[in-house]
## 1
Amino acid sequence: MQYTHHQFQHPIGIDSPRAASHPHPIPSPSYHRDRDALCGNALDGIICFKHSLYLIPCLLIAIHGSVDLCKFSRRPVIHPQSSNATVIKLCQLTYFSKLCLIIAVSVIQLAYSCFLLIRFGWWDPGQCISSLLLCVSLLYALPLHHLSHQRSQRSCTSLLFFYLFLLIISAIELRDHLPRSLLIVNPLPHQTSFLILRSLLLAAIFALECLGPFKYHDDHHHHTFSLGNQKNNINPNKNAYRPLSQDQSSLPRLESPLVYANVFSRLTFGWITPLMKLGQHLAEHDLWRLPRADQADALTNRIHQTWSRQRSRTHSDPSLIRAIVHAYGGPYLLAVLFKCIQDILQFAQPLLLSRLLTFADSYSHGNQPEPLSHGYTIAALMFCCGLLQTLFQHQYAHRAFVTGIRVRSGLIGLIYQKSLVLSNQEKSGRSTGDIVNLMSTDVSRIQGSCSDGLILVSGIFQITLAFISLYTMLGWPMLGGVVVVLLSIPFNMGLSRLYSKLQKVQMENKDSRTRLMNEILNNIRSIKLYTWENAFTKKLSAIRNDRELCLLRRMGYLFSAIFSLWSFIPFLVAFVAFSIFSLISDTPLSPALIFPAISLFQLLESPLGVLPIAINEWVEAYVSANRIGAFLASKELQQDAVIRSSYSTEEHVPPVEVLDAHFTWSSGTDSTLSGISLSVSNGKLLAIVGRVGSGKSSLLSGILGEMLKLSGTVQLRGNVAYTAQTPWLLSATVKENILFGVEYDEELYETVIEACALVDDLAMLEDGDKTQVGENGVALSGGQKARVSLARAIYARADVYLLDDPLSSVDAHVARHLFDKVIGPNGLLRGKARIMCTNAVPFCQQVDELIMLRDGRIVERGTFQSVLAN
């Protein structure tokens, strides 16, 4: 129908004076035509339904955006880390461009809203309200853009989805208006132009937001610091123990793109593309730095906090599983959600297949054929289901695997920290092999349950979906399959319970074998010397062959029975369901019914097949979690045995102070040390002498907090370095044992080597200080190990030195050299507080104070001359 200019000024239209005075104004034809162009017609389904779609992005920015706004407001401002001025200018240009574009879209949207109100009033309130809400949402996005740019390293997720939904809705509106603009004479050109302009501006904002705040890529500046000249003495006012930081040790590596990747890059794994482009065998330097939250110390601290909260509860026993869930459960719960969505999409495919077969059947037997658009829609839905299913499956697998790695790193760090503070009573009942077994076998099983154990939950969910889908196809006959599954569950649970008991016994056998193997390796020299190889081989074989292998065989038979049972169940379920359907139903088994049902039965086979594996993994993880939990809940060293404070240079504040202290090795026994009181100031050397077994080494252990303090006070100020009577060396080079993680200072290193009389020894070694010392220093002699241990303590540059008989393992002339160059009043440690246990009387003449112990008590104290006189 054609409208002329005069018809737009119809005397009874809304613009005429007569219409204004009429109680119910009659809209003009131009009004109806414009409203149809604005809202659509009956061919589009629901009039103005597209306007209600604007509620989705508006609610998204209101809810999710508010959460992001609160999160960003609590973060500090992140300053640009790039030194490239061009990058910084480009970043600023991007930021201001986004703000200008948002303001432009807001102004255009506000102007268009005012136009709608003036032109049409409230004839279509949905259009007006949605337009005003969109304008408010765009203005609300401005502070979110500002804070996201200043305080976030990646693009804001709520803003990305906000603009994405707006682009989709704008495309839907353009789809409605562009055909009308071609068919209707003199349409509303302003609305089509507005939609095109708004879509272009939104696309530009979306593209700029996807770029992200790339200003935060750093240039990896190397931070170095001077340790000063330490040739002749170690400055007592400086703590030169400077362990290498996490960042320094990985400076050559680049920052992980995952830190800056937006939500779309993380969903599609686009952030890993630069690594894939290398196209070569990867080396360590090709890998990126781990994000800070995924580094070992951060993961250990997280599980340590949750475990401490579990232990602080008095009404229940601590649960390691609950601690793991609280520490790392967030991403894992998201993985569960992704897996459930993937399962739903997986079971939607047979339903779509059934609908596609019904569509194809409509073109046969003279039936009324369905429109081809239905077939295209079904095919498109099947494609989208497959695409989304793959997307969610990989997101689930990635998060589950990463959670497993986090649990492994955190638990290993937690077990290691616990092993350092075990009480002496607990240490006597546990060997190193037991702790290693916890770190390797038990932790690996818990990690495996995180990566693959989710199949248990997913399997139950898939079985439920399969039976619901089968019910929609077969009806009540599918209950026969349900009965088969229910009857098999108790039998399988009994087998799983038996498998759990065998698994617990197997772990005990592994502990016994590991403990025996550790003893064999530690005493391999004695075994070889006395030709005890056959005896220990028989002993080891008795555990391995007679106990472990026999139990493994029984467990293998049991697992095969469980797996065979669950593999046979899907066939039995399908057989029973189809048999009952054929007997009681009048409906024939058509291809549109059989093929989707068979697809569902095939999908049912997967969860039923992997369910016993998942149950097995969860059983093993549960046993391992209880073992680790029992270890972590064991008794620790006395936390308040030693009062530790910062180092003080004041002379009247001694670094070591013990007042009337009583110590014992285990609770319930008599005091090993009684009435101990001593004080060591800066630059003083205290010697502790006494017969063998008088308590000299125990006194040093008590000062370190290794013993149970019954009463008294022990206070240490500053860092402490300790050398044991039996030196402990790392299985590394001589140099690495001396540095022990401290930054290398060539001048100080050479000074320490010379003071510890290691120059000649290193010259005799083929590789010098790069010689591997072997396990516990097996490649070195006793005197060399003692001097390397002493050199490590000196290089640490501590404030307090506790030396347990450091001169007993060396020759007399070497002992004199060590005392003069290191320990004595003119040595490297002359400015430090030193406590030395020794029976070398010649060196006691040069100490500042001498203490004599007998039966755990101080019987004499004073200078060498005063003690000798008594």
## 2
Amino acid sequence: MSAGAAGSFGIGQPVRRVEDRRLVSGRGRYADDFAPPGMAHGYVLRAPHAHARILHIDAARARRAKGVVLVLTAAELEREGVKPIPSWSRQPPSTFPNRDGSPLPDPPNYPLARGKVRYAGEAVAFVVAETQALAQDAAERIEAAYEELPPVVAPDAALAAAAPRIWEDIPGNLCFDTEHGDAGAVERAFAAAAHRVRVPHINNRLVVHYMEPRIALAEHDATTGLTTLRCGTQSVQRQRLVLSQTLGMPPERLRVIADDVGGGFGARSYLYPEHVLAAVAARLTGRPVKWRADRSECFLTDTQGRDQRIDASLALDRDGRFLAVRLEALHNIGACITTLGHWAAAINIMRLATSVYAIPAAYLRLRAAFTNCAPVNAYRGVGRAEAIYAMERLVEAAARAIGIDSGELRRRNFVPPEAMPYKTPTGSTYDSGDFAAVMAKAQAAADWAGFAARKAAAKANGKLYGRGIGCYIESAGGQPLEYAKLRAETDGGITVLVGTHNHGQGHETSFAQLVAERLGVPFETVRVVFGDTALVDKGAGTHGSRSMRMAGSAMLGAAAALIAKGTEVASHLLEAAADDIEFAQGSFRVRGTDRTVTLAEAARAAVRGAAPGKSSAELAGDLEYRTEGLTFPNGCHICEIEVDPETGAARIARYAAVDDVGRVINPLIVHGQAHGGIAQGAGQALMERVGYDGETGQLLTGSLMDYALPRARDLPMLTVDTHEVPCRTNPIGVKGAGEGGATGAPPAVINALLDALAEAGVTHIDMPATPETIWRALGSAAGARSPSSRRRPSRSMPSD
């Protein structure tokens, strides 16, 4: 590729995101900004109980209420032929079969509860009225009677023999029980090991806090039979497919539009009940219907993240070489299976259990339990973050047990670059990476040598001070197909249509950089289009750090097809053989002459049908890119943390990160992704946690008054950099940059915290390490020291 006309806007340049000017100036167009004429408003009546049988629902009074247009209950949806939202839990069954060979359960996830409610906030009825206030008033007139049942919110309690059964046909509340690896080899390695460490821990449940609450705006055209859903989603194509299966309609009769979307993080990859309800209501009323969530509903009903109980063990020889890893995980899947919601974590834990280390043997047992909590789905770094956190906690524990520097222990066990491609004992094949070089660069950025002086200064001020490392690797790629189309416009512009979606990743900038450089056209002439199945009905959307690798590869193929078609037109216009035509800098040229045709001229000729045997047509090329391979972005994060032993308050003092994302298209965007991910990871480590009441099943952290999020003041200036080791499995050489921060930060922060607390005798702490948690851990370690003599922390989180 030649920079050419792309100039300072091509690959590798820190181009500012072009979409930001539109968004920060208030000119973004979100689903809630649309209000078609005649629009009605929807309101969802939600279950007040975490677990209860529905005795009856009487909506007669609500239907007579002022301004009411429609009331839907499960009975109406059944009459309309609405099916459960598919989970795809058995597609394909060989992905992770149950250990005993039994089929994976697939309980029906109805848009409105039938017969029973299984978590507080589950949708029970949908009221449509002239205004949202009238719809809410009418919903209060619905008479719903319940028989309360005992709830269970912890996964280990859910698997107990005496636990209440959440789904009557699923014994023991077991979602799956699968294993992976060589149990015999691991047992032999542990038996022969000189050192063994074990770290049981919790990977805490999180709420996904995107800036824009969920919206569903549906319209139905009775003439064409087309139903249009406008919503925030990470994939309009998947949304349309799942919606068509739920409504029993062909996809061609559905259009899904996602304009600007205020963040995704995995939770917008799921078709929610409200999407279905709005679509059904629009079809039945003949009017546009909008449902808008408030922030409380987001806490109650948006899919949540993480929530794993993990017991991890590592075996080492006398020289500190890793011999085997064993991991048992229990996942709280919530009340039902959302579309692919339980797969992502399990698959990625399997893929990455040995992380960046050369470990000969591994064994994993993974289970998931149904509980009376909101459903769990993907959350930034899903499965990757859980596997890496477990491994990095083990490495730090091993370093302390053996008495070796944790950096040296890692260096001793890294997969070396000369071993690439490297196949792990769990079946992943790393194509490239230089993990030792990445860590060395991170240590330099973190001023590794200056740590002792900073620790001494903190001690002089009565503070505890520690340092932690979080090395990580991720499997990126997601669904193995993506689509792109490049069209040359008659005015000289290039339109790029892609199946991915931009909701904070900067695609309108980075995709334009790639195309501008490949075609040699000015960056500002490239326009990126996405998020409408009427325009792009192929592709798989944005998830799993896949977009540049998949859509970028598709764009390169589409560019080649565009150039090939343009060459045919140019050969006619220039009266030369196609083999004599070359393309560069946005123009076709007869080789060895100054006779040229620009892309715009070729596009105008194509529209006129100027080429022989050609009717009027656009000048375009497209490609559906497919690959089964994955990429493996990796990195090293180093955190230093200061703790006030009197209050338990912890402060991140320094943070440095180096990420290998393969070829860097736009370093400014890559660094921005790292900053955001680190903030999320630090939030999980120190303050974020969803809490449910164990007796009632009610959500305890239902607002930002009791669920803490990191603020700018909670983070220092971050030092972030990249170390490029190009990927070998795609034509661009990219690996993915969307999730490394959220994966590397939790172990780096907690390892730093434990290093600080070690001199006080604290050896373990679970996330989130709130001031109260730290204060209590210090008190327990102090033994005889009276807790009443110590100041209470200023911030705390409710207990489970």
## 3
Amino acid sequence: MAWIKIPCILYAMAGFQIAVTPPHPPPPEAEQISWALVEILLKQRSGPFLVKVFCFVHAFRYAKKESQSLCWAAALSEILVIFASYLPECALSRVILDVLVHEGSNGIVWVSPLFVTGIVLTAVGAGIRYWCYCELGNLFTFEVSIRNDHRLVQSGPYDAVRHPGYTGIILAVSGVFCFSFAPGSWIQECGVLDTLVGRCAVMLQTGIVAFIICGLILRTNAEDKLLEKHFGDEWVNWSARVPYKLIPVTCPICSNRVESHNINAHIDQGCRDVSAEREFTSQSKPKLSSQSSDTSDVGHRKKIAPIFNSKSKPAMASQSSALMTPTALKRKTQEAVPKSVGDPPAKRSKTTLQDAAPLAEKLRPVIFKDFVGHHHVVDLIRNGFAGSVILWGPSGCGKTTLARLIATQTDAVFKELSATTASINDVRAIVDAAKSTLALTAKKTVLFFDENRGELMRDGPLNLEQDIFLPSLEKGYIQLIGATTENPSFKLNGALLSRCRVFALDRLQDRDIQNIVTQSLDRLSRDAGSSHGLADKVVETIVRMSSGDARVAISLVEIALKVPEDCDEAKTIALIRRSAATNYDTAEDHYNLISALHKSIRGSQADAALYWLARMLTGGDDPVYICRRLVVCASEDIGLADNHALPLATATLTACQHVGMPECRINLAHLVVYLSKAPKSTVSYEAYKKAEAAALEHPTLAVPLAVRNAPTGLMESIGYGEGYRYNPDYAHPVTNTYLPPELEARPFLRKDGEMAGKMWDEAALVAWETKKTTESSGREDSRRIYSGPVAATDPKVVGVGLDRPAERFAPPTILKHLKRLSTIACALEQHLLHLRKFVYRLDGDNIRFGLNKDLGFDEKSRVENIRRIGEVSKLFTDASCITPTAFISPYRADRAMARDLHEKASLAFIEVFIDAPISVVEQRDPKGLYKKARAGEIKDFTGISAPYEAPENPEIHIKTDESDVQESVRIIMEYLTTHGFIQM
């Protein structure tokens, strides 16, 4: 369709040439008006500013020639590019494209709405200009002149405006400018603006056009002055009948012609003729003709400026009140009501929508500089991101503000809908309007959809019509910005979600809320002209009570500023606390908090579980729902480890149903603490999931005949129940075929102590032990997790000593310095606890804190350290407790002493040698102690500068470079069971 531009451009440029070409030669110099006279007249009329402006009017002839040249150059270049694009094989076409199309541009010329508008403006302007040529004849020149045979033309276009020729040239110049720089033009699409010469030419042309238009508008004053001087009353009468200089203006109420600068006063004064009522003195202006003073006064009375009006106004008895505007009617009423001397001055009524808006809306940021928080999103938008987005976050985090700021970044039409009031028809109307806007103005439409807690995503008509956005998003008609508090992945369909970028906005941090409060106080102080301040403790309370909600924070600021003056700081804080409502989202928070409660119970963290329970109850959540989830938890996580958990959970559910809030929170707290402290077992839950998977995999396996029901003789005759052994009839265990043959070798229930399928994460274990050691409760919690009924071992069993050449000087409170040794001991302890064995582990974190905290690392202290450990281990073993000990004992004599203590008491002592090469141990040394020892910073370091006497005949020898933790535990357990130390 680009070829259609060629005749349009030629037609428009022909009209432009007509508009800027003088139809007649200039008049003789004797008939021309010198600019000195014009400047004098202008100075009398408009002051020094217009004098300075018109000093440059003589430059019009040069500006006109330069503008003509640039316009024709652009038009001819565009025509050549169009011809060349349709004949690409021609050698000349390639030359044209190489010269006129900049490298890197698309070079495709197309028709845009602005191009069509420019063509129409140029044609209309040229037509008006040609009409003026015909009416004035040889009087129309481009010079300001009064010819000898000059007459005042009042017909044709001069019957509508006084200077239609200027109107035509302004329209023509503006039209050429529009279609030359429109989208799809040669200048826009062929890289002209990418070159320095092109940019300079465009800037020059823009300046020339602006200069010409401004000069022509100001030149009308000079011509009016000259015509009034030479034609006197004839011009006065004509100007009264045709009050418009360039564009006719008609009153929308009375349809009378009114000067453009008088239209507001005309309407406010009830559509009466403002210019006809101006009063002046006859001496205010010099006479311009030899006519009588009365006639001259009449003319001047119609032209006098409004500032000379008399204070007294004639009564308008015939004025119809129906034609009076509300402003005029209100003014008339106020003038009619007398005021007493003692009446207070009238105040301006603040009833606008802006005054009625809440403080949070008034203080909403309008520039990115004032926006607080979410820097990752703000930086992305500032860098030019302009796609469709879904802003997902809690209330008051800045979703709406951010959406409006995004809209300000692009030159687009902004539309806003609320899901509480919008319908499908509203969306369709905006989409249709967006298409039209893009076609006419090349502007996209930004549609901001504020879902107000996710109404769009819930079931409803809009939820069924999300696909209405898809075509518009794909074709670029609209840019969608959605704001929601609900998870978009749950409610938005995949097609729409894939076309939008989801920004997850977190709750604002306390420092962000504090910045918002500070900005709000500063802005209120600037607006009011007085200082607004709050005490630091009041601000801290506002930040804490707002819970990351900026809207709540500003509302609390408003409350704090409006407290009575006699309220002290404590009363203000108490008022803020009573005013702050708990921000609890029954959608997102509801599921997040119940998940946190369940996982805290699973992790045996009673404190955390109680906190999440309190958060849900204080937020208004349903206690019955919470208890139903805890009933599931009792079987899922506690299960067979404590069969009392499920009855207590069901009893608590009954209590919640019968008692209700607030008392039932006591029952819930009881249950939560019990479940948190109870031993955990998922054996039954995991076994069912395996059985369920088998049922889905083999849904049609036949029931074995032996275990089928045989209520009739026919069933018995075909083998139902045949071979079934009734267990109570036997004095010993018997077996039957209970499963189909395909599943007999597929166990579902995990055996006691079986660790298959369980992960072993040393880093996670060390982190757990470090935390529990810091809290001085590591061993207690170890028993709590895997506690339960324990089986007492034979008194001869066992002191299990583990040793290796390791980090002797490592601080015992930092368990990872004894990583592999302590890890194996801990894993052995946990495995024995799973088997319901009575076991207690001794290592650095529970010995060095108490029993041996007075000992150092000299030779005497080392001997005493092992002696005390041996005595404690002997006491534990004598109490039928399996006692793994994990200590570094580099000397055989010390280990032999510990063995003798046990054997003299007829107690078993098992030495386990954890053999790790020095190179491996150094790699596991996060503290860098081995590196310091090799540098000489640590003396007598075991394995580096001090000897290590390896065990000669240990009961168990484990090489850590060959066996991982789980394998090491298996080796130790195999030895204990094989030698009868543990009964399985």
## 4
Amino acid sequence: MDFETGRLARLATGSVTVHAGSTHVLVTCVAAPQRAPDSFAQLDATLLMHPAMQTADWRRAQEAIQNLNTAPLWVDVREHASARGLIPTSYHRRESAPTEKEVITARLIDRALRPTLPRGYCTETQLIAEVLSADGQLDPDTLAINGAATALGLAFQRCFPMEIQRPPLVAAVRIARLASTEALQAPSTMAKPMSLQEQQPRWIIQPSHAERQASDLDLVFVGTSDGRCIALEGEAKAVAPADLVEACRLANAAVAPLLEHQEQILQRDREQVSKRDSITGARSTFWAVPRQALLEEAFRHSGERFEAIYADAPDKTERGIAVAQETARTVAYLQQNRNWSSSSATSLPDTEAVGVTEASLAVLQVSRQAWRRVLQQRQRRVDGRLPDEMRQMEAHVQVLPADTCHGSALVSRGETQVLAVATLGFPSLAKRLDAYGGGSDTKQFYVHYQFPPYCNNQLGRSDALYRRRRREVGHGMLAERALRAVLPNDLWHAVRLEANVLASAGSTSMAAAAAGSLALMDAGLPIAGPVAGISIGGLLANVSSAECPSSACSTMMPLNEKDPLADLLLVDLLGLEDFFGDFDFKIAGTEQGITAMQLDVKQYGLRLDQIANALEKARAVHRAQLEYVLRAALPAGVARPCLPSQAPRRGSWNIALADRGRLLGVGGHRIRELEQQTGCTIQLEENGSVSLWAPNEQALEQALETLQQAMRRPTCGDEYAGRVLQVLDFGAIVEIQTSPGSIREQGLLHRSAFVSSAEWSRVQVGDSVTVRVTQVDQRTGSLRFAQLASTAPATVPLDENENNNNNNKSSTGSQGDCGSSTTL
């Protein structure tokens, strides 16, 4: 992996081009310190414009206050179609809305870099990663992460004084594990016995798409120079926690050279920046950090009241109202009072006003510190649970009518509630992807996660139910990865799983994974087993600001020199615990092992031993969840024995190769007629069989019956009413139909086979004649008839187009006894 600066996008604050083979990714970082606020007064103007602040609705204003405590960092990713030598297939022939892959990569970059930003960082910063060239072998996401970290470092040391410590560098690699080399061998070499070395699992750094497909573990690891993991994302096929820890250990060693390379680039640029600063002078900046005196007074005034709220408000709604009311009272107190208690270590001069933003941020830190103290002193969480206690869980299957929905399940965990609905469709309904960066261009199984505003008792825009937001895309992908490992390898359906969050109180993505597995089982899919998901979070040991530059992990003031909360793990996080905690580790798996994971940290990374502890804790919770699910939702412990009757079906019918022409008809008109008649899709396979794709079970049965009737061939001794198509010197060509809707057959009625010479002399085209089959050629399928009754004019004239088609028909080969079989 090579880095290049100073060649492309020279006007951007920081720009880096990362190369790996023929894959090139340009990452630019633009920081605008000139647009950043220089005081809390400017932030007050922004906050007061929020509708909730104008109406004094402090409960809704909490979101705006929390946003002010978040660094203004935007990340966008774009994979150009030209990177693969393609033209977009959209109407305007240009890239449109961000694809699912672009959103997932952008979120991964954000999670990797946001924890490294300093506390109080309020300079608007935008990172854009563009895939300029892609060889289709290597996923460009890790290149984008490494380029973004370098570009952010360049922008930071160019925009801010040199004495301000820049964000620590991070680097990313992808690691995969091949169980053996068998999956990658060509068919011609499969017969060769594999050596012992080839049978051993093999770890691959930066694997290709083919290697990732054949692997049982695919992981993106983002690490730091001190051996911590700051972001983790991947999927697996039910692997053990020890395997994941080993993957992290190998990946941690692989990021070291990348970090050294980044540091060299920044060191060269730092020397040039120092020369410019000596001429232009030092630059100043503003950090949105409340003053220490204000923090101390806010804690003295409302710390105990916040602790009382978190100690005795298990209900989310009740707790939210109480926190909003106390926040409003404390902010008003801090703004209106100047003569604070003498117990404060310091006080503010009367001339220094306290704005609503500074006061709100101070109260937010007091609220977080109060939550931490309650957890420390009581060893109980806000809802009364122990740290390792899971919320009460309920699971139900077939919650929607089975005659309309293929599969449905409802999972409730505490106040969180998710409804999952599985829908099966034809293979043509697979999701199409613009995989310009490489990989498959279709996806047979996909999850749509929906987070409507009512799940939090909030108002939303009218398009909130169908607008695709980044958070929904990310949570849906996490649930999809968790479930992908349990799907059967021979799955032919296109499967859409809709995960609707009906109520949100934390861990909705993990509830979606559990509900999704039950919905798939209710739909009759033979999955490997149900999936459990859990969020592991908690509090890590307090670290100094130098070790942890993130605003989220910096404590307001030391509470206890002997903090017993070091590395305290919390199981099944609430939304409040996710926001105030130091990390959120989402882990999903089956009874056999882990299938998906995603790490989001607010601290400056986790050590490998902390990751191992979280994984082991999650596995214990998985087993408890799965035991409950199998007992409460699926008493038999197995999926529905067959697909629901209204689900799409696939059938097959064996047909002789000689009869393919009879089924197709001239120009394929006959097979199109059968498709219109049955409502099914009929496809001829290379092995001679006929595949039928029916919308439901009844349609498949009717289609098979219709097809068998249509392909039924006459046998010797059968009698039919036919029509004369053509009169020749030696006889007449007669057309018969074995049954209504069947394919019409033609045969020869020799002049000697007429009942009399008089009948032969007056036969004409279009006459009706009753015949008996006297001969069937087993090789060619040609027929010979004998007349049973005198001819008569046809009562229904032949359709002109049909007559033309029949005259153009040719005899086809014979068919033996036709057997049918249906596969579901």
